[in-house]
Structure formats: C-alpha cells, structure tokens
Amino acid sequence: MRELRPEELRRRCDPELFDFETTAEIEPLKRGEVIGQERAIEALECGLGIKDSRYNIYVAGGPGTGKMSIVQAFLERISAEEPRPPDICYVHNFEDPYSPRYLLLPPGMGSQLRADMGKLIELVRRDLPTALGSEEYQEQKRKIDDEINRRKNELFARLKEEARTRGFLLQRTPIGINTIPLIAGQPMTDEQFKQLTPEERAVLERRGEEIKAKIEEAIRQTGQLEEERARRLEELNRRVAAFAIEPKVNVLKEAYRDHPRVVEFLEGVKQDILANLPAFLEEVPDREARERFKRYTVNVLVDNSKTEGAPVVVENNATYPNLFGRVERRVHQGVMVADFTQIRPGSLHRANGGYLVLSADNLFRYPLSWEALKVALKSGQIAIEDPAATLGYAITEGLKPEPIPMNVKLIIVGSREIYDLLQAFDEDFQEFFKIKSEFDSEMDWDERYIKQFGPFIRARVLERGLRDFDRSGVARVVEYAAELTGDQKKLSARFSDIMAIIREASYCAEQDGSEYVTAEHVERAIQRKHYRSNLIEEKIQEMIARGELRVEVEGAKVGQVNGLSVYNLGDFSFGRPTRITATVFAGKDGVVNIEREAELSGKIHTKGLLILKGWLGEKFAYDKPLSLSANLTFEQSYSPVDGDSASSTEAYALISALSGVPLKQGIAVTGSIDQKGEVQPIGGVNEKIEGFYKTCKLKGLSGEQGVIIPEGNVENLMLSREVIEAVKEGRFHIWAIKNLDEGIELLTGQPAGRRLENGQFEEGTIYWKVDKRLRELGESLKGEKGEEEGG
Predict the structure, then answer these.
(1) Which 8-state DSSP code applies to residue 529?
(2) Going by C-beta distance under 8 Å and a sequence separation of 6 or more, which residues neighbour residue 781?
(3) What is the rounded distance in angstroms from the CA atom of residue 768 to the CA atom of residue 752?
(4) pLDDT, tens digit, for every residue of 274-286?
(5) CA torsion, points 158, 160, 161, 166, in degrees to nearest 10?
(6) Do residues 505 and 454 lie in contact, with contact meaning Cβ atoms separated by under 8 Å?
(7) What is the largest CA-CA distance in the chain?
(8) Mean of the pLDDT values across residues 622-648?
(9) Annotated catalytic sites, by residue?
(10) b/e string for 122-137 if b means 16 or more Cβ within 10 A?
C-alpha cells in the first residue's frame, strides 16, 4: 500500500520538447502521412503491392481513428504513380442487338472514337445522296432499267404472238391481261360467240386455258425480271455506296488497327449502312436523325482522359446499381425501351484498373450488393444486370451488356466486429480478402509521435483556416490525447476527437483576440466540451447534495463502503459513488447478491461475486464449513449493474459486517479481485476518482478523504489539475494497493491479520474477528440442528 505523489497522478508533456515556438514555423504533415499506425500501413502496402484478385483489403478499426480518410490519402499517393486504365465504351452489336459489346481503349480514345463515328455518319449522310445522284450512277441505272424493260417487252411480244396463233388477242389493263377470242383476225363479239356450236366453244375454251397458262408463266417470268432489276439495282447501289463509304471506313480502320474489337465494329457499321441505304437518302430533322442513326454511336461509360494515375473511387452508398451500373429506360411511343446508349456506369467501372473503397456499415446493408460483388470477384467480370434477374426472378426481355474484365482492388473499411463475423461465417470473404489492415485507437507515448502533433496541427490549420498553436498549446493537445486513452503510456489515435478540440481551441483564441492558440485556450475548449455534456452528472451531484442520493463521506460505518461506478453516455463518461452495504446473519444461504435476485446483475458482476465467494471460502473455511447468510447490494441503484470492478468493494463491506469493525466513509474503493485476494486493474479509473472528488468537494473536503485504486491502475492516471492540486495540498488522497489486506487496513485503521502456524489468525486482527464470527454462526446452526433432532 502506498499513497501516490502528485507527480504520479498525471503525465505531462514538456513544451520544451518541441523545436519551434509556434506551428507557423513548421511544415505541415503531408497528406497520406499517418501518426502511429505502422502496422496498418504495412498491411496496406502489402495488400496493394500484391497484384492478385484475392488480395483485397479489409481495413478494421474503431470510430474516429480517421481510417477512411487515411486510406483515401494513402491510395491517392500510391495510385498517382500507376498507369491510367483504359476508357470503357459500349457499342451496338449488329449480330445480337440485345447484347451490346464493350470496347477497352487507351485513355481519351473512347471520346475520340465517338467523335470519329459522328463525323463518319455525317459524311456518309452527305456523300451518299451525291454518289447515288451522279450521272454515271443514273446511266448505269438506266441501262439496267432499259435491259429489264426490253426483256419484259420481248416476253410480252412473244406471248402476244403465240396467243394470236391460237386465235386470241391479248390486251393489257391496269388490273391484268385480258384474253379476247378472234374470228377472221378480228375480236369476236358476244353475238358471234353465242352463234358458236358447243364443239367450237369447247375448242375455244381449251385454247383459252392454254393461253392463260402461258400468261401465268409470263407473269412469273416478269416477276423474276423485276426481282433481277431490284437485285441489280441494289448491287449497283451497294457498289456505288461502298465506293463512297469504304475509303472513309478504311481510314478509321487504319487509325484503330491496334484494336481488333474496334475494327470489327467498324466493319459491322459499314455492312449495316450498306444494308440500310434508303435511311441515308431521306431528309429528316436532326432529332429524328439522331434516333435513326443511334446504333452507330459510341457510349463512353468511363473517360479516363483526365485521370491522373490509377483511379481511386469511394462509394458511400453501395447499392447494386451504384456498384454495377444500370440500363436506363425511356418511353417511346408509349412503350418502355432501352438501348446501349442508356447503359450507365457503376463504381466498379469507374474504379476499374484502380481502387474501390467501400464502407462495411453501408455495404452490408445491401445483401444483393455483397453477393454480386463476390460473383464478380470469382468471375473476374463486371456484369450489368437487372437486380431482379440476379435474384432469379423472371423479367421482360431487355439488354444484357457483354461483361467487361474486372481489374479492381477492393478496400472495405469497417469495424473489427464485422471482420470477425465475416471470417467466421463467410468462406468467400476469407478467399478474397486475405489482407487485414487494423488501425489501433491508441499509440505509444513516444517522442517521435509527439513531435508529429505539431505538423498535424499545422496541416489542419492550413486546411480549415484555423489559428496556429504555440508550443504550450501543442503540448496540451498531446496531454489531451493521453486523457482520451486514460493511460500515461498511450496517446489516442482517434484524431477526429482531437481535431474537435483543436477547432474549439482556435475559436477560443479568436474570441480572446490572440494570434496563437495557447495551453489556456486548449484547456478552456476541453472544459467547454465537458460542460456541454455533463448535465446528467450535475443532476446526480445535485441529488447527492440534497440528500436524495445518500452518500456519506465522513465518519465510519459497519458493513457500508463507497463503491465507484462509471456512467457512459456515448460522448461523455463520468464517475459517481454508490453505497454498497452488507448484512450478515445465521443461515445457510451463503452470500446472496440482491442485484442478481432482482435480475439487475450482469454476467460479469455475477462472476465477480462468485470469485469473492471463492476467496472467502479459501480464507476462512480451511477447518470448518462456511455457514452463514449474507446479503450484498448497491443501495439506491435501480438500473442493471455489470462489471467486476466492485468485487473488492463488496469484499470490504462483507468483511466489515462479519468483523463488526466500521469502515471509513471518506474513502471510496474500486478494483476487482481474484480468488487469492489480489486486487486487479479496472477501467474508468480517472472518471471514478474525479467523480468521488466532486462529491467530497460538494460535501466539504476534510483532508481525510480519498480513493483506493489497484496498483495496476497507477499508469492509467491522467487526472485533472484540480484533483492534483487538492492532493498536493493534502485535501485529498489517492492510495494504490496490491491486495485486499492492504485495503482492509487502510479502511479500518487496524491490521488485517496473518495466519499463524496453528492455522489461526493473529488475535485481535480483522481476520481473527471474522473467523471468530463465522465459528459462532456455525455453532449456532449446529445448536439449532441438535434441538431439532432432540425434539
């Protein structure tokens, strides 16, 4: 047991450690430089250096460590030295219009190809009508027409002559060819036809049928001639059009000769133009023309012409369309339609050839996105599909763009808990995320890290227009970083919390009209933050002052001691004292935890009490059964109790109740125990001490009050200057102990007692009194049993 000196209650940062007067004199911390996260950075470098689709990275860490911004800055620095990825385009598939084809082109070439295709179609629309309206074309067209017409006339002349030899005259009409019988070389009248004998009529009808057959054959041949005319004219048109188009297409083929898919597309464009020549010969408004010739355009999904290095994309809302892209639809003549020009990119397209950063909290809200992402990692392709189709639902026929090769390094940023769940329950995660980069929420109190606080503050000053800090202000910020950890050997790496104080301290300096931020301004910012958050703490202190919550800080009482607990409100924690009482009487119930009986005891608190029972049994039941009934409770506590930090406090209350020796009420206690009675470190030691100090100050500091803490918590002390000043003046005390014996002696002012060779405790000591009382309780129970048996 020892009383702690004031210098042990806080670790200070000496301003003389810094080789500058103000941060205005130093260079800022460069973007991407990180303070105290070597392990995480080494893992990032390893994961980014291994070019393998399975070596994606999960960045784990607590909130406020700046892991997302650090990852972004780190990736921007790394990616700047890497090559730019290709442009991603989609074009019409002339063989299967429902499956547009992708093109991967050097950066900037996608937009160039789109412009070249626009010029090509413009030239074709201009030159085709000219080529098909030339005199040479018209002359060849006339020759075809004249030849076909001549052959048709010859065919009709032969038919006409054959009909005449058979006694018929052929007459062309708008609706066909009529056959008129002849008599004496002249058309037969109705009267003449009626005068024919039946035999003559039969002969005439037979010849008429023969002529009709000839006519049908001639009509068929005429149709063939028209088909030949159309075919020859089409061949002429294609030949003339090809003569006009091919040089232009060939120029583009030559320009893109190193890109076979582009050459293939250009050949498809040429053949499609030749197959749809009438569309180019008709004058139509520009709007209609854009719609008509849309299939010859190029949809540039990703243009990397202005990208510097590999892309770094941060997707904050990882829905399926945002990741994988989508096909938009429009209403055309009352029907929803889509084409390849309505394909829109997702984050994976924009990050292809680079890095995609996702938030785990956001990504795993969308199970479809995660499942589709795993499919993409397995296949190595980015496929744009209707989300309903990926779930197996039947959908109306639509576009299914050709999947593009995927070359993306994925970085998921999230908590350690999510990482553990994925490792345990998702085997695909283990396969594709082999690198874990873990950001710690704290770092060592190390001079090399401390000296980086100046450049860090300077960088924030330049970024946000704040006031520069003098060396005392920087030193106070370092101490605040240690306060956040509650550890003299650690500094907080939660730079978002540190940045909040830097910003407020700058505001305080601005209010004072000070050119630089000093330690006073930082202290005031910390106090203001505390004041904004401590309303509940003040309400509890008010209830203590009014006696609504009973806390005694003077005198001594049997079976009662002040325990210390911590209330965590998220952004603010504070400590408060709670009376813990114990009662002992004859019985066989053992030590009863009233909180547990009332279902207010957490599992860890229950475990702590069971450990206490183990210590009590080993200490006093070595030569007799442990026969007693004892109740332990937190007085005026109406909410769940958890944690084992009160187990030593409960032990003191129980020992006091058994021995009948009162405990000093001005001393509060915290610490857990093991079954051997050793006192173990606990959390929230600073909040607990300061909470009891405020209560004592409220009720009046007598100079006898203080707190007992475990020896193992001494290095966790980062107490306020007010508490340290009270300790220095002897108005408040802090003791560190290693075991229950030391605590008992401090609380009672009497020796705890050690076991003699005969197994008994030293007479008159606390443990001797406890042992005596336990024997008395055991004897009384035996007496009751004997009376029952005798009766």
Answers:
(1) H
(2) 586, 587, 588, 627
(3) 8
(4) 888 888 888 878 7
(5) 130
(6) no
(7) 166
(8) 85
(9) 645, 688
(10) eebbebbeebbeeeeb
